[in-house]
Amino acid sequence: MSEKNWAGNVSYGERKLRRPRTLGELQEHVADAAVVRPLGSRHSFNTIAATPGILVSFDRFTPVMEIDMKSMTVRVTAGVTYGVLGQYLQRHGFALANLASLPHISVSGATATATHGSGDRNGNLATSIASLQLVQANGSLVDVSRGDDDFGGYAVGLGALGVISELTLDIEPTFDVAVSVFENLAWNDLALHLDEITSAAYSVSLFTNWANDTVDQVWLKQRRGRHALHRGAQGGAGEGAEGDDNDDSGAAGLGERFFGTRSATERRHPLPDVAAEACTEQLGLPGAWIDRLPHFRLDFTPSKGDELQSEYLIPREHAIAAFEALRGLAHRITPLLFISEIRTVAADNFWLSTASGRDSVALHFTWKPLGAEVEALLPDLEAALAPFGARPHWGKVFTAGVAEIAPLYDRLPDFTRLAQQVDPGQKFHNDFLRAKVFGA
Ligand SMILES: Cc1cc2nc3c(=O)[nH]c(=O)nc-3n(C[C@H](O)[C@H](O)[C@H](O)COP(=O)(O)OP(=O)(O)OC[C@H]3O[C@@H](n4cnc5c(N)ncnc54)[C@H](O)[C@@H]3O)c2cc1C
């Protein structure tokens, strides 16, 4: 019986699971394997981590987290989750710039697939990587840093260029976030005021089922200056947002109403009719970034649990047309859907990042666990989004193959060249990478 992913829809198919405790053991396992894939916290919904060979889990790997205040970075070993790292940083008065909807995912696995949160000025999670260390096919170590020639390939590496053993991430002084939820935003108002709405807070999420007359919920996560803990840790004085360029507590429009919507009077779950206990605090109550930037709390099951997910990133100039295309398909999408989320992601220059070279709008679908029906719908959904250059999230369910994907990434030939150079024996390849990235 092979290992399964978090959602239970994928079996990894491995011959053997290896669980190294030390870097030396990790290097030996990689060197000895004919075919190998690294595993994070198993939250991807497709076979990106699958292998008929050796699957390397980091669940027993000795965790290291080490802050360097001089370079304002933190060193973190593979397998550590954002939840664990975030709590450690918060205790010491520091923060990461952004997080995904859940803190349960590993830093190494999330950055490898260009996992993102939201925010017009926030890049995906890989943009905080200052450097990384990888175990190469022969077991030797290589360090790659921001500014190195091939860093753009390694930062979102899909596990195809080696096994990341540790990463160094940018950090900043800790800050607070206050989450306010507004309900029933008219589609027309969203079309007229998209830029004002997505820039109204540090991180903005819109939840819809595409069929309703309005977008069900708007989540505005406002950044509130530096957190008191950091001021204490640094020995500094003074209250308020001084010194934080990203502070948006003065942003307009956050009273009881926001573009014709009303603020929710109690906490909300993104899924209709699901109790909000699994969600982080809302109602505008400020709290530490680690307790507000994710939608879901570390000690609860995130999202629905029994579900599938797909997501597509498009250049933000096509957002309104893409919303219309999806609303036109609502009669087919909505019956299979728990909820959709719309977010924004700032452009980066990583070769296989879904936001590479484009300020993006991310169109996310949390599906009911109806694999066959979702698989049947996706070709039509992808065809509807194709005119907008939609790039599928690497860690979620999609049907596009290399023929559709290659034209979306100018630097794909560079990635293929780099993979060939560092892994000529194709030790890190699997069926997913052959079908979606490298070709047969
Ligand atoms: C409930 C839920 C909510 C989600 N919310 C979001 C969201 O808000 N935003 C978003 O963008 N995505 C989201 N996702 C998707 C998720 O973030 C990605 O699939 C992410 O890659 C999962 O990280 P992981 O640690 O589980 O990696 P895994 O799924 O275990 O692995 C993913 C990839 O990373 C590679 N990898 C893992 N470890 C290493 C390593 N040490 N070295 C090299 N490669 C490695 C694997 O080989 C594989 O290719 C969500 C998923 C779930 C289940």
Account of the protein in words:
- 23% of the residues lie in helices and 24% in strands.
- With 440 residues, the protein is α+β, with helices and mostly antiparallel strands.
- The two termini are 27 Å apart.
- It has 12 helices and 20 strands.
- The chain has helices at 23-32, 82-91, 107-112, 151-154, 187-198, 228-234, 319-328, 330-333, 371-385, 402-405, 412-422, 431-438, and strands at residues 16-18, 36-38, 54-56, 65-68, 73-77, 94-95, 129-135, 141-145, 163-170, 172-173, 175-186, 203-208, 214-226, 257-258, 261-263, 287-288, 308-315, 337-345, 360-367, 391-392.
- The strands form 4 sheets. Strands 11, 12, 13, 14, 15, 16, 17, 18, 19 and 20 form a 10-stranded antiparallel β-sheet that branches. It has a 5-stranded antiparallel β-sheet with strand order 4-5-9-7-8.
- Bound molecules: flavin-adenine dinucleotide (FAD).
- Flavin-adenine dinucleotide is lined by residues 6, 37-44, 48-49, 78, 100-102, 105-106, 108-110, 112-113, 115-116, 158-159, 163-164, 302-303, 309, 393, 395.
- Keywords: Oxidoreductase.
